[in-house]
Design brief:
By secondary structure, the chain is an alpha/beta fold. Helix content is 36%, strand content 27%. The chain has 11 helices and 19 strands. The strands form 4 sheets. The chain has an 8-stranded mixed sheet. 45% of the residues are buried. Pfam families: FAD_binding_3, NAD_binding_8.
Length: 393
Protein backbone atom coordinates (compact mmCIF):
# COMPACT_ATOMS: atom_id res chain seq x y z
CA UNK A 1 0.00 0.00 0.00
CA UNK A 2 1.41 3.37 -1.06
CA UNK A 3 0.86 6.33 1.24
CA UNK A 4 -1.49 8.94 -0.25
CA UNK A 5 -2.17 12.61 0.39
CA UNK A 6 -5.89 12.73 1.22
CA UNK A 7 -8.17 15.70 1.75
CA UNK A 8 -11.52 15.23 3.50
CA UNK A 9 -14.31 17.76 3.08
CA UNK A 10 -16.51 17.76 6.17
CA UNK A 11 -15.77 16.73 9.75
CA UNK A 12 -18.89 14.61 10.13
CA UNK A 13 -19.02 11.10 11.52
CA UNK A 14 -18.00 9.51 8.22
CA UNK A 15 -15.26 12.01 7.48
CA UNK A 16 -13.65 11.73 10.92
CA UNK A 17 -13.92 7.93 10.89
CA UNK A 18 -12.18 7.85 7.51
CA UNK A 19 -9.55 10.26 8.86
CA UNK A 20 -8.89 8.01 11.87
CA UNK A 21 -8.66 4.80 9.82
CA UNK A 22 -6.57 6.23 6.99
CA UNK A 23 -4.19 8.17 9.24
CA UNK A 24 -3.53 5.01 11.24
CA UNK A 25 -2.46 3.32 7.99
CA UNK A 26 0.12 5.97 7.20
CA UNK A 27 -1.79 8.23 4.83
CA UNK A 28 -1.44 11.98 5.20
CA UNK A 29 -4.97 13.17 5.98
CA UNK A 30 -6.28 16.73 6.23
CA UNK A 31 -9.90 17.42 7.24
CA UNK A 32 -11.58 20.72 6.32
CA UNK A 33 -14.78 22.00 7.87
CA UNK A 34 -16.70 25.25 8.13
CA UNK A 35 -16.91 25.36 11.94
CA UNK A 36 -14.67 27.71 13.91
CA UNK A 37 -14.29 25.18 16.71
CA UNK A 38 -15.26 21.50 16.39
CA UNK A 39 -18.99 21.13 17.03
CA UNK A 40 -21.58 18.57 15.90
CA UNK A 41 -25.17 19.22 14.83
CA UNK A 42 -28.09 17.05 15.91
CA UNK A 43 -29.48 15.08 18.82
CA UNK A 44 -29.75 11.36 19.52
CA UNK A 45 -28.89 8.39 17.32
CA UNK A 46 -28.30 4.67 17.66
CA UNK A 47 -25.05 3.01 16.67
CA UNK A 48 -26.04 -0.46 15.54
CA UNK A 49 -23.77 -3.50 16.04
CA UNK A 50 -22.17 -3.09 12.59
CA UNK A 51 -21.33 0.52 13.44
CA UNK A 52 -19.98 -0.49 16.83
CA UNK A 53 -17.64 -2.91 15.05
CA UNK A 54 -16.21 -0.01 13.03
CA UNK A 55 -15.74 2.10 16.16
CA UNK A 56 -13.80 -0.79 17.69
CA UNK A 57 -11.67 -1.15 14.57
CA UNK A 58 -10.58 2.51 14.63
CA UNK A 59 -10.04 2.45 18.42
CA UNK A 60 -13.05 4.52 19.50
CA UNK A 61 -15.31 1.72 20.74
CA UNK A 62 -14.41 1.76 24.43
CA UNK A 63 -14.82 5.52 24.65
CA UNK A 64 -18.20 5.30 22.92
CA UNK A 65 -19.43 2.60 25.27
CA UNK A 66 -18.42 4.70 28.29
CA UNK A 67 -20.60 7.55 27.04
CA UNK A 68 -23.47 5.77 25.29
CA UNK A 69 -26.48 3.84 26.54
CA UNK A 70 -27.04 0.20 25.51
CA UNK A 71 -30.46 -0.35 23.93
CA UNK A 72 -31.76 -3.92 23.96
CA UNK A 73 -35.22 -3.37 22.46
CA UNK A 74 -37.32 -1.01 20.35
CA UNK A 75 -40.98 -0.96 21.34
CA UNK A 76 -43.81 1.09 19.84
CA UNK A 77 -47.55 1.24 20.55
CA UNK A 78 -50.53 2.82 18.85
CA UNK A 79 -51.42 5.70 21.17
CA UNK A 80 -55.17 5.03 21.44
CA UNK A 81 -55.58 1.27 21.19
CA UNK A 82 -52.19 0.56 22.83
CA UNK A 83 -51.74 -2.18 20.25
CA UNK A 84 -48.06 -3.12 19.81
CA UNK A 85 -46.94 -1.79 16.42
CA UNK A 86 -43.18 -2.24 16.60
CA UNK A 87 -41.27 -4.76 18.70
CA UNK A 88 -37.67 -5.51 17.80
CA UNK A 89 -35.29 -7.18 20.23
CA UNK A 90 -31.61 -7.02 19.35
CA UNK A 91 -30.90 -10.47 20.76
CA UNK A 92 -34.22 -12.36 20.53
CA UNK A 93 -32.69 -15.72 21.50
CA UNK A 94 -30.41 -14.18 24.16
CA UNK A 95 -27.30 -15.74 22.67
CA UNK A 96 -25.20 -12.96 21.18
CA UNK A 97 -25.44 -10.08 23.64
CA UNK A 98 -25.86 -7.67 20.74
CA UNK A 99 -27.49 -4.31 21.38
CA UNK A 100 -27.78 -0.84 19.97
CA UNK A 101 -25.65 1.90 21.47
CA UNK A 102 -27.68 5.10 21.80
CA UNK A 103 -25.61 8.28 21.92
CA UNK A 104 -25.96 11.99 21.60
CA UNK A 105 -24.41 13.03 18.31
CA UNK A 106 -21.97 15.29 20.13
CA UNK A 107 -20.70 12.33 22.19
CA UNK A 108 -20.10 10.24 19.06
CA UNK A 109 -18.46 13.25 17.42
CA UNK A 110 -16.13 13.62 20.41
CA UNK A 111 -15.13 9.94 20.19
CA UNK A 112 -14.28 9.91 16.48
CA UNK A 113 -12.65 13.36 16.54
CA UNK A 114 -10.39 12.37 19.44
CA UNK A 115 -9.48 9.13 17.68
CA UNK A 116 -8.74 10.87 14.37
CA UNK A 117 -6.49 13.44 16.01
CA UNK A 118 -4.61 10.76 17.96
CA UNK A 119 -4.07 8.88 14.70
CA UNK A 120 -2.39 11.96 13.22
CA UNK A 121 -5.10 13.58 11.09
CA UNK A 122 -4.88 17.37 10.67
CA UNK A 123 -8.06 19.40 11.27
CA UNK A 124 -8.54 22.73 9.47
CA UNK A 125 -11.53 24.72 10.79
CA UNK A 126 -12.90 27.90 9.19
CA UNK A 127 -12.73 26.34 5.73
CA UNK A 128 -16.25 26.20 4.20
CA UNK A 129 -15.92 23.94 1.16
CA UNK A 130 -17.69 25.21 -1.97
CA UNK A 131 -16.30 23.01 -4.73
CA UNK A 132 -13.51 20.82 -6.05
CA UNK A 133 -11.26 21.09 -9.10
CA UNK A 134 -10.91 18.50 -11.86
CA UNK A 135 -7.64 16.91 -12.96
CA UNK A 136 -5.20 14.29 -11.84
CA UNK A 137 -4.75 16.06 -8.52
CA UNK A 138 -7.88 17.46 -6.93
CA UNK A 139 -8.03 20.71 -4.96
CA UNK A 140 -10.84 21.80 -2.67
CA UNK A 141 -12.29 25.27 -3.20
CA UNK A 142 -13.24 27.40 -0.21
CA UNK A 143 -15.52 30.36 0.39
CA UNK A 144 -13.50 33.49 -0.34
CA UNK A 145 -11.69 31.96 -3.31
CA UNK A 146 -8.87 30.03 -1.60
CA UNK A 147 -7.80 26.56 -2.67
CA UNK A 148 -6.35 23.63 -0.81
CA UNK A 149 -3.08 21.99 -1.82
CA UNK A 150 -3.54 19.23 -4.43
CA UNK A 151 -4.57 15.82 -3.11
CA UNK A 152 -4.29 12.32 -4.51
CA UNK A 153 -7.83 11.73 -3.23
CA UNK A 154 -10.64 13.98 -2.00
CA UNK A 155 -13.31 12.42 0.23
CA UNK A 156 -16.63 14.24 0.28
CA UNK A 157 -18.20 13.89 3.73
CA UNK A 158 -20.11 17.17 3.74
CA UNK A 159 -23.48 15.54 4.34
CA UNK A 160 -26.96 15.99 2.93
CA UNK A 161 -26.27 19.50 1.63
CA UNK A 162 -23.00 18.59 -0.03
CA UNK A 163 -21.73 21.20 -2.51
CA UNK A 164 -19.64 18.49 -4.17
CA UNK A 165 -22.16 15.71 -4.71
CA UNK A 166 -24.28 15.45 -7.87
CA UNK A 167 -26.99 13.56 -5.96
CA UNK A 168 -30.49 15.01 -6.48
CA UNK A 169 -32.60 13.29 -3.78
CA UNK A 170 -36.36 13.05 -3.42
CA UNK A 171 -37.63 15.09 -0.49
CA UNK A 172 -39.70 13.12 2.01
CA UNK A 173 -42.86 14.78 3.33
CA UNK A 174 -42.21 14.09 6.99
CA UNK A 175 -39.33 14.95 9.28
CA UNK A 176 -39.11 15.46 13.02
CA UNK A 177 -38.13 17.86 15.74
CA UNK A 178 -35.48 16.58 18.13
CA UNK A 179 -34.50 17.73 21.60
CA UNK A 180 -32.25 16.54 24.41
CA UNK A 181 -33.12 16.77 28.09
CA UNK A 182 -31.82 15.39 31.38
CA UNK A 183 -33.45 12.06 32.14
CA UNK A 184 -36.14 12.65 34.79
CA UNK A 185 -35.97 10.55 37.96
CA UNK A 186 -39.76 10.18 38.00
CA UNK A 187 -40.02 8.23 34.73
CA UNK A 188 -40.84 4.51 34.79
CA UNK A 189 -39.63 3.88 31.22
CA UNK A 190 -36.72 1.39 31.10
CA UNK A 191 -33.37 2.98 30.33
CA UNK A 192 -32.44 0.27 27.80
CA UNK A 193 -35.55 0.80 25.67
CA UNK A 194 -36.31 2.98 22.65
CA UNK A 195 -39.99 3.77 23.28
CA UNK A 196 -42.36 5.11 20.62
CA UNK A 197 -46.02 5.97 20.22
CA UNK A 198 -47.92 6.31 16.93
CA UNK A 199 -51.19 7.88 15.89
CA UNK A 200 -51.98 6.24 12.56
CA UNK A 201 -48.94 7.25 10.41
CA UNK A 202 -49.10 11.03 10.69
CA UNK A 203 -47.79 11.16 14.24
CA UNK A 204 -44.75 9.41 15.68
CA UNK A 205 -43.21 10.38 19.01
CA UNK A 206 -40.30 8.77 20.75
CA UNK A 207 -38.07 8.71 23.83
CA UNK A 208 -34.49 7.49 23.41
CA UNK A 209 -32.03 7.31 26.36
CA UNK A 210 -28.67 8.49 24.99
CA UNK A 211 -26.17 8.28 27.86
CA UNK A 212 -23.99 11.27 28.66
CA UNK A 213 -22.02 14.00 26.94
CA UNK A 214 -18.24 14.34 26.95
CA UNK A 215 -18.34 17.26 29.41
CA UNK A 216 -21.45 16.39 31.44
CA UNK A 217 -22.02 13.23 33.53
CA UNK A 218 -25.80 13.79 33.63
CA UNK A 219 -27.76 11.02 31.88
CA UNK A 220 -29.55 12.44 28.84
CA UNK A 221 -32.63 11.52 26.83
CA UNK A 222 -33.50 12.44 23.25
CA UNK A 223 -37.11 13.24 22.35
CA UNK A 224 -38.54 13.32 18.85
CA UNK A 225 -41.89 14.31 17.35
CA UNK A 226 -42.68 13.76 13.67
CA UNK A 227 -44.15 16.55 11.55
CA UNK A 228 -44.10 18.04 8.06
CA UNK A 229 -42.29 21.23 7.11
CA UNK A 230 -45.65 23.05 7.03
CA UNK A 231 -46.42 21.64 10.49
CA UNK A 232 -43.10 22.94 11.75
CA UNK A 233 -43.89 26.55 10.87
CA UNK A 234 -47.23 26.26 12.67
CA UNK A 235 -45.57 24.55 15.65
CA UNK A 236 -43.06 27.41 15.99
CA UNK A 237 -45.85 29.99 15.86
CA UNK A 238 -48.06 28.33 18.50
CA UNK A 239 -47.52 28.50 22.28
CA UNK A 240 -45.27 25.69 23.50
CA UNK A 241 -47.86 24.59 26.07
CA UNK A 242 -50.29 23.67 23.27
CA UNK A 243 -47.84 21.16 21.88
CA UNK A 244 -47.04 19.79 25.34
CA UNK A 245 -50.74 19.26 26.03
CA UNK A 246 -51.20 17.47 22.70
CA UNK A 247 -48.13 15.26 23.28
CA UNK A 248 -49.07 14.26 26.83
CA UNK A 249 -52.64 13.50 25.72
CA UNK A 250 -51.20 11.02 23.23
CA UNK A 251 -48.62 9.69 25.68
CA UNK A 252 -48.80 10.65 29.38
CA UNK A 253 -45.30 9.22 30.00
CA UNK A 254 -43.89 12.17 28.04
CA UNK A 255 -44.95 14.67 30.70
CA UNK A 256 -41.83 14.61 32.93
CA UNK A 257 -39.58 14.88 29.86
CA UNK A 258 -41.52 17.76 28.35
CA UNK A 259 -41.32 19.72 31.60
CA UNK A 260 -37.67 20.27 30.71
CA UNK A 261 -38.55 21.91 27.37
CA UNK A 262 -39.10 25.61 28.01
CA UNK A 263 -38.28 27.13 24.62
CA UNK A 264 -39.03 26.22 21.01
CA UNK A 265 -35.29 26.52 20.28
CA UNK A 266 -34.60 23.41 22.37
CA UNK A 267 -36.22 21.32 19.62
CA UNK A 268 -34.23 21.17 16.39
CA UNK A 269 -35.94 20.34 13.07
CA UNK A 270 -34.63 17.62 10.77
CA UNK A 271 -36.20 16.95 7.37
CA UNK A 272 -35.24 13.98 5.27
CA UNK A 273 -34.77 12.96 1.67
CA UNK A 274 -34.14 9.74 -0.22
CA UNK A 275 -31.70 8.94 -2.99
CA UNK A 276 -28.46 7.17 -3.90
CA UNK A 277 -25.68 8.03 -6.33
CA UNK A 278 -25.37 5.42 -9.05
CA UNK A 279 -21.61 5.68 -8.60
CA UNK A 280 -20.19 7.50 -5.56
CA UNK A 281 -16.70 7.77 -7.03
CA UNK A 282 -15.00 9.63 -9.86
CA UNK A 283 -11.36 10.24 -10.69
CA UNK A 284 -9.68 11.26 -7.44
CA UNK A 285 -13.01 11.93 -5.69
CA UNK A 286 -15.34 9.78 -3.59
CA UNK A 287 -18.57 10.64 -1.78
CA UNK A 288 -19.45 8.88 1.50
CA UNK A 289 -22.31 9.05 3.98
CA UNK A 290 -25.19 11.40 3.25
CA UNK A 291 -23.25 12.95 0.37
CA UNK A 292 -23.65 9.61 -1.44
CA UNK A 293 -26.92 8.19 -0.14
CA UNK A 294 -29.80 9.59 1.90
CA UNK A 295 -32.79 7.99 3.58
CA UNK A 296 -35.16 8.53 6.47
CA UNK A 297 -33.89 7.43 9.90
CA UNK A 298 -36.68 4.86 10.21
CA UNK A 299 -34.25 1.92 10.33
CA UNK A 300 -31.71 3.80 12.45
CA UNK A 301 -28.91 3.31 9.92
CA UNK A 302 -27.71 6.82 8.97
CA UNK A 303 -24.56 7.10 11.09
CA UNK A 304 -23.87 3.39 10.64
CA UNK A 305 -23.82 3.75 6.86
CA UNK A 306 -21.27 6.55 7.14
CA UNK A 307 -19.12 4.45 9.49
CA UNK A 308 -19.27 1.48 7.12
CA UNK A 309 -18.46 3.66 4.09
CA UNK A 310 -15.38 5.02 5.84
CA UNK A 311 -14.10 1.60 6.85
CA UNK A 312 -14.76 0.04 3.44
CA UNK A 313 -12.87 2.88 1.76
CA UNK A 314 -9.97 2.28 4.13
CA UNK A 315 -9.92 -1.43 3.23
CA UNK A 316 -10.08 -0.72 -0.49
CA UNK A 317 -7.12 1.66 -0.29
CA UNK A 318 -5.16 -0.97 1.64
CA UNK A 319 -5.78 -3.58 -1.04
CA UNK A 320 -4.98 -1.48 -4.14
CA UNK A 321 -2.11 0.92 -4.78
CA UNK A 322 -3.81 2.10 -7.96
CA UNK A 323 -6.39 4.70 -6.88
CA UNK A 324 -8.87 3.95 -9.68
CA UNK A 325 -8.84 0.25 -8.78
CA UNK A 326 -9.29 1.09 -5.10
CA UNK A 327 -12.31 3.31 -5.74
CA UNK A 328 -13.89 0.74 -8.01
CA UNK A 329 -13.35 -1.89 -5.32
CA UNK A 330 -14.89 0.42 -2.71
CA UNK A 331 -18.05 0.90 -4.79
CA UNK A 332 -18.48 -2.83 -5.22
CA UNK A 333 -17.86 -3.49 -1.52
CA UNK A 334 -20.77 -1.30 -0.42
CA UNK A 335 -23.21 -1.56 -3.35
CA UNK A 336 -25.31 -4.55 -2.26
CA UNK A 337 -25.71 -3.48 1.38
CA UNK A 338 -26.63 0.08 0.45
CA UNK A 339 -29.12 -1.10 -2.16
CA UNK A 340 -30.95 -3.34 0.30
CA UNK A 341 -31.13 -0.81 3.12
CA UNK A 342 -32.20 2.02 0.83
CA UNK A 343 -34.95 -0.24 -0.49
CA UNK A 344 -36.08 -1.27 2.98
CA UNK A 345 -36.04 2.32 4.22
CA UNK A 346 -38.18 3.45 1.30
CA UNK A 347 -40.64 0.61 2.01
CA UNK A 348 -40.88 1.08 5.79
CA UNK A 349 -41.02 4.87 6.02
CA UNK A 350 -44.59 5.42 4.70
CA UNK A 351 -45.88 2.87 7.21
CA UNK A 352 -44.80 5.13 10.06
CA UNK A 353 -44.58 8.63 8.58
CA UNK A 354 -47.18 9.51 5.98
CA UNK A 355 -50.74 10.80 5.53
CA UNK A 356 -51.94 7.44 4.25
CA UNK A 357 -55.09 5.98 5.75
CA UNK A 358 -54.68 2.40 4.58
CA UNK A 359 -50.94 1.87 5.22
CA UNK A 360 -51.32 2.12 9.03
CA UNK A 361 -54.11 -0.46 8.85
CA UNK A 362 -51.91 -2.77 6.79
CA UNK A 363 -49.11 -2.23 9.33
CA UNK A 364 -51.28 -2.80 12.41
CA UNK A 365 -53.45 -5.72 11.29
CA UNK A 366 -51.27 -7.68 8.87
CA UNK A 367 -47.56 -6.79 9.02
CA UNK A 368 -47.26 -6.56 12.81
CA UNK A 369 -48.89 -9.96 13.47
CA UNK A 370 -46.69 -11.51 10.76
CA UNK A 371 -43.58 -9.98 12.37
CA UNK A 372 -44.14 -12.16 15.46
CA UNK A 373 -44.09 -15.44 13.54
CA UNK A 374 -40.63 -17.09 13.32
CA UNK A 375 -38.27 -16.50 11.64
CA UNK A 376 -39.50 -12.89 11.36
CA UNK A 377 -38.22 -11.75 14.81
CA UNK A 378 -34.68 -12.88 13.96
CA UNK A 379 -34.86 -11.30 10.50
CA UNK A 380 -36.03 -7.99 11.95
CA UNK A 381 -33.24 -8.12 14.53
CA UNK A 382 -30.61 -8.59 11.82
CA UNK A 383 -32.21 -5.87 9.71
CA UNK A 384 -31.86 -3.37 12.56
CA UNK A 385 -28.43 -4.64 13.58
CA UNK A 386 -27.29 -3.82 10.04
CA UNK A 387 -26.13 -7.22 8.82
CA UNK A 388 -29.12 -8.72 7.05
CA UNK A 389 -26.61 -8.97 4.21
CA UNK A 390 -22.85 -8.54 4.69
CA UNK A 391 -22.24 -4.80 5.15
CA UNK A 392 -18.90 -4.93 3.35
CA UNK A 393 -18.41 -7.52 0.60
Amino acid sequence: MLSKDIGIAGAGIGGLTAAAALSAKGHKVTVFDQFTTPAPVGSGLVIQPVGQDVLDLIGAGDMARQMGQPITRMLGHESQSMRVILDVTYDPKQRTGRHGLAMHRSALFHCVLTTAQKAGATLCPDHPVTGVTDGDKRQLLFAGGDKSPPFDLVIDSTGAKSPLSPLVPRALPYGAIWGTVDRPTETSLPIDLLSQRYRKAHRMIGILPVGRLSNDPTIKTALFWSLTQADYAAWRAAPLDEWKAKATALWPDMAPFLERITDHAQMTPAFYSHGTLRSPAAKGLVHIGDAAHRASPQLGQGANMALLDAWALNLALQDHDDLADALDRYCRMRRRHLWLYQLMSAAFTPLYQSDSRWLPRLRDHILTPLSRIPPAPSVLSRLVCGDLVPPIR
